[in-house]
Design a protein that fits this description.
Elements lengths: L6 E4 L2 H13 L8 H8 L4 E6 L2 E11 L3 E9 L8 H12 L4 E6 L4 H6 L3 E12 L10 E3 L5 H8 L8 H7 L5 E8 L2 E10 L4 E8 L2 H13 L6 E7 L3 H9 L3 E11 L10 E3 L7
Parallel strand pairs: 4-5, 10-11
Antiparallel strand pairs: 1-2, 2-3, 3-4, 5-12, 6-11, 6-12, 7-8, 8-9, 9-10, 10-13
Helix pairs in contact: 1-2, 2-6
Amino acid sequence: MKTPAHRIQRMSRTDLALALQWATREGWNPGLHDTDLFHAIDPRGHFMAWIGEQPVACISGLRHGVGYGFVGLYIVEPRFRGKGLGLAVWNAALEHLKGCVVGLDGVPEQQGNYARSGFDLAWRNRRYSGVGLGPRPPHPRIVRLAGMPFDSVAAYDRRFHPEPRPAFLQGWIRQRRGTSLGWLQDGELRGYGVRRACVQGHKIGPLCADSPAIADGLMQALCAGVGPQEPVHLDMPEPNREALALAERHGFVAGFPTARMYRGPRPHVDLARQYALTALEIG
């Protein structure tokens, strides 16, 4: 089938807000304030295909530092699918990420297509969903992350991401309607987690901790800020069996899986201490 005449442009913030509306329609449940946070990671890394004045497909190919990129927010408007427009924005994103190791979190049924583009499976994730706990006293070692020296927060986060991401992290832990908590022990940060408000309920991510007990304490503290009928979701890496056990112990139910794949050498991230990913759209 011949691909219809189209043009591909870098997304403005307004375009990105539209792409996140598409993501909502697809059931991805983005954060209420993701537009500015995602755009700031790499303002030149968001692409949209247009036919005339009609936006028809989108993708993000974001450079995180010098040598690492991530593909996400890959959507074609339903009535324009099967016409080659998805491949067009896909190629634009990969061209932008030329020279980078590239990661993505994709649905398993697309794994074969990604493999044909040179991506190899690294692990699978699983979304877990539950509800908030309602107000309860915080553990004495829980601190507000925004009150910590930022250098210590950035140094801790570096263990869980292929490239340093201080600019993104500054915004992520201070986002509107978000809560960011750390676990301070013997004067050192031993774990942290972020909860953000989403279209439906809340998501926790990242959640990183030096032990299952610390992860449990942080998760309970983050859920305590949510009403007992409000949904809470986490995207957890399946190789971390302690993470899955933590979710199930608190009554969270496993939902859809995704596949973390990389094109290029698989970067080292500390999955044994990573209990929830930041966001499937950005890695």
